[in-house]
Specification:
- The complex is a heterodimer of chains A (251) and B (482).
- With 251 residues, chain A is α/β, with parallel strands linked by helices.
- Chain A has 10 helices and 12 strands.
- Chain A has one domain: P-loop containing nucleotide triphosphate hydrolases (Rossmann fold, 3-Layer(aba) Sandwich), CATH 3.40.50.300.
- In chain A, strands 6-9-10-3-11-12 form a 6-stranded mixed sheet, sandwiched between helices. In chain A, strands 2-1-4-5 form a 4-stranded antiparallel sheet. A two-stranded antiparallel ribbon of chain A has the order 7-8.
- The longest helix of chain A is centred in the middle third of the chain and has 15 residues, at 96-110.
- Chain A starts with a strand and ends with a helix.
- Chain B is 23% helix and 34% strand.
- In chain B, strand 3 (126-132) and strand 4 form a beta hairpin.
- In chain B, helix 9 packs across helix 10 (442-453) and helix 10 crosses helix 12 (463-476).
- Chain B starts with a helix and ends in a 6-residue tail after the last helix.
- Classes of the chains: A alpha/beta (251), B alpha/beta (482).
- Chain A binds chain B through residues 49-53, 72-74, 77-78, 82-83, 85, 88-94, 98-100, 102-103, 106-107, 110, 142, 159, 163, and chain B through 2, 4, 8, 428-431, 433-442, 444, 448-449, 451-456.
- Bound molecules: adenosine-5'-triphosphate (ATP) and magnesium ion.
- Adenosine-5'-triphosphate binds at residues 12-13, 17, 37-43, 86 of chain A.
């Protein structure tokens, strides 16, 4: 098992947001997480990736046979956990090239590899740019600076493609994308999918799941997963909304 | 900012000063304190001509009439000017012609600092004048430069070998009456660099001076004079370090630049004097007067500085734009950490027609430090159609540090345009987490973000030094993240 979350409770500034959540992800799987606004989907992503201030008050997060709850965020990233941010951050003056070279070399260093030669790195950039159909215009600029909402999301997938993580969490990567961009992002994900990695896709829309077909769909409500099912669950949600689940979760 | 951000900040700003070692060499010292005798001692040690001694004494007598200035945003206990040793020279008086005659201890010192005085090993394209405490120990590539008619030597040598040039220009841009520390420097300065670019010559090498304070209880008072005749060009760079000591040390320098018609001088500084420890103990007081005179038409002077060291920095590299169509530029990154204080900026004085000036200042404060930009843009009535653009940005790491901006603007004609922009920002937790999530640790992330922030200025540095400066920025903020 790649990711095994057991009875996880997470608090922000003393307030409990995740309230005893369980989730198991195997290599080769795609899991979709859906659920109303404010139920803790991004909080879950932050807890898995080790963001400061997200306090695990109970439970465990096992990744590749180790409990990672005490581990720093950069180390988790170096172990192959990637987050496509719901709100990507701008870093003025730091070029995408410099940023990604720093990231790739940090990850290589962690794995005991020498820095990637400049030529090899540039070739890799070119290759991945094509994969997610992102313009050099963008990659020559500072990290996310002045990017449109959709461009930022594409840029997340571009970074994912460069880093080739083992576990990728996509937090509403589809929000704000036009139809073509949505297809490109899905294409990027599908090409990276393999028997060796897994994806957790957080989304509000069934549409994305037509392109990235999940093995499981989970519904999160009030800090817990209240229902899990196949991809058909997403269709059901699209149809019925969340109200019926709220009633279920109260019992 | 949350506590947790501050904790991270505290941790990351714990970097150590890497140049704090001391070389045990025998010194020739002046007696402690400052009287006319001290000045005669220095002048005699340097075997100076009478006119030089006269200049010093005039400056000294003027200095005695002055009060030590008090600065709005700088705080330090009173300086005991009688407690300082005003002259310290490595005893084995080095001959300047060959490396073999330089004390091996000194060569090793400079090697340790990453400044090789061996021309074979030196970065191609850079000539160095190495100054330790009060004297220049070695100037490299003098022969190569001489072929182009360029004079690059220590100030003492210039007084001996080129007295007519020194007499003609010394004190014309920064007179000894200019301010308290300029008067002091004019009285007691011990060495420094001199550079003369003849008409129409572009220097084939970057010139640089490396200043090192070594001896205890001494002050360093050097002066630099650069003259570029019509059509001349030179890019000049200075670097500085000092050992770690508990007491404060005074550094009061003067730099004068003069450019004639169409001449250009680029002056870059990477200042890394010992900043004091984390409790604010020790460190160098860096009180410096730097000024350039664009005397000729279409001439240009450009100051670029990366200020990371010193416990107190007080400096305003300035341009007097006298020639028509002349250009002045000031690009600055000033980083303060722990208890450092910096009050720095520039003065752009527009006298000639169609003169232009640009000011880009990036202040970065961490720890409990204070960082001020103070600048004056003065456009005189005759400076018609002149322009200034100023941009002053401050970046805060944590919430115990301060950033202040004091722009003074004085425009005395209608046809000129002055623009000023200012911003203040913080390194956010979001940015750090974003970097962490890509596998970049917090210390590297701060280096990355700060270098990105300062990029506009770093890009102005000569290539050889830009890389050094980038590293230095990261090191200065090591242990300070948030
Ligand atoms: N830093 C914070 N401080 C206080 N409360 C927070 C913080 N971050 C999140 N929360 C709260 O935690 C709850 C869960 O937020 P989260 O962002 O995880 O929701 P989400 O399921 O991702 O919602 P959306 O679908 O809108 O993205 C919300 O009520 C939110 O207001
Ligand atoms: Mg969310």
């Amino acid at each position: 098992m790649l990711l095994n979350i057991k009875n996880l409770t997470v608090a922000i500034e003393g307030k409990e947001i995740i309230k005893g959540l369980n989730l198991q992800v195997n290599k080769g799987e795609v899991h979709a997480i859906m659920g109303p606004n404010g139920t803790g989907k991004s909080t879950l992503a932050a807890a898995i990736t080790g963001r400061e201030g997200y306090e695990v008050t109970e439970g465990e997060i096992w990744y590749k046979d180790q409990n990672i709850i005490e581990m720093d965020a950069d180390e988790r990233a170096n172990l192959g956990i990637f987050l496509s941010f719901q709100y990507p951050v701008e870093i003025p003056g730091v070029s995408m090239t410099n940023f990604m070279r720093t990231a790739i070399n940090a990850q290589r260093e962690y794995r005991g590899l020498p820095p990637m030669p400049a030529g090899e790195f540039l070739k890799l950039m070119e290759e991945k740019k094509k994969l997610v159909d992102i313009h050099s215009k963008l990659t020559n600029r500072s990290v996310n600076e002045g990017f449109s909402g959709g461009e930022k999301k594409k840029n997340e997938i571009f970074q994912m493609a460069l880093l080739e993580p083992t576990l990728a969490i996509l937090d509403e990567t589809d929000s704000g994308l036009d139809i073509d961009a949505l297809r490109t992002v899905a294409k990027g994900v599908n090409e990276l999918r393999s028997e060796e990695n897994a994806f957790v896709v957080i989304t509000h829309y069934q549409r994305l799941l037509e392109y990235i077909v999940p093995d499981f769909v989970h519904v999160m409500y009030d800090g817990k997963i209240v229902k899990s099912g196949s991809k058909n669950l997403a269709l059901e949600l699209e149809d019925k909304g969340y109200e019926w689940l709220k009633e279920q979760s109260l019992v | 900012m949350s506590d947790q951000t501050n904790n991270i900040l505290d941790e990351v700003t714990k970097g150590e000063y890497k140049f704090g070692f001391y070389t045990d060499i025998e010194n020739d010292l002046a007696p402690r304190g400052l009287t006319e005798d001290t000045i005669r001692f220095i002048s005699a040690k340097k075997e100076e001509p009478e006119w030089m001694l006269e200049f010093r004494l005039k400056a000294f007598r003027h200095w005695q009439t002055l009060e030590e200035p008090e600065w709005a945003h700088l705080h330090h206990p009173p300086i005991d000017f009688q407690g300082i040793i005003y002259f310290a020279a490595p005893k084995k008086k080095p001959q300047l012609s060959s490396l073999d005659e330089v004390d091996p201890e000194l060569l090793e010192t400079f090697d340790k600092l990453g400044i090789s005085l061996d021309e074979q090993k030196r970065l191609a394209g850079v000539a160095v004048d190495a100054v330790i405490d009060s004297v220049s120990v070695k100037t490299t590539f003098q022969d190569t430069l001489a072929k182009h008619g360029i004079i690059f030597c220590s100030f003492s040598e210039a007084v001996k070998n080129h007295p007519e040039l020194v007499k003609k220009y010394m004190g014309t841009v920064v007179p000894y009456t200019d301010n308290y520390y300029a008067a002091l420097n004019s009285a007691v300065f011990s060495d420094g660099s001199f550079c003369y670019i003849p008409k129409g010559v572009r220097s084939p090498l970057e010139l640089s001076t490396y200043f090192r304070i070594n001896a205890a209880n001494t002050g360093q008072f050097e002066r630099t004079l650069i003259v570029a005749e019509a059509g001349g060009y030179v890019s000049y760079m200075e670097g500085c370090t000092a050992p770690m000591r508990d007491e404060n040390q005074l550094h009061a320098a003067i730099v004068e630049i003069i450019t004639m018609d169409n001449a250009e001088v680029k002056y870059s500084t990477v200042q890394n004097w010992y900043p004091g420890d984390k409790q604010g103990k020790g460190g160098v007081y860096n009180f410096v007067t730097k000024r350039g005179l664009c005397k000729g038409n279409r001439s240009k002077i450009s100051w670029t500085q990366v200020e990371t060291g010193s416990s107190i920095t007080w400096k305003y590299p300035s341009c007097v734009l006298m020639g028509d169509n002349s250009i002045g530029e000031f690009y600055s990154v000033a980083v303060t950490n722990n208890f450092q204080q910096a009050d720095t900026g520039t003065k752009m004085i527009h006298l000639g027609k169609n003169t232009r000036s640009t000011i880009i200042s990036k202040g970065i404060s961490a720890g409990k430090s204070n960082n001020s930009y103070r600048g004056l843009v003065k456009i005189m009535p005759g400076a018609i159609n002149s322009r200034n653009f100023s941009q002053c940005d401050s970046l805060l790491l944590g919430d115990k540090c301060g950033a202040h901006t004091f722009p003074y603007i004085d425009t005395r004609n209608q046809s000129s345009i002055v623009e000023h922009e200012a911003t203040t920002s913080k390194i956010s937790e979001d940015q750090l987490f974003y970097c962490n999530q890509r596998g970049i640790d917090t210390e590297k992330a701060i280096g990355l973000i700060v270098n990105g922030y300062a990029k506009e200025v770093l890009n102005k540095l000569p290539m050889e030094f830009a890389v050094e400066a980038q590293k230095l920025l990261s090191i200065t903020l090591e242990g300070s993240v948030g």
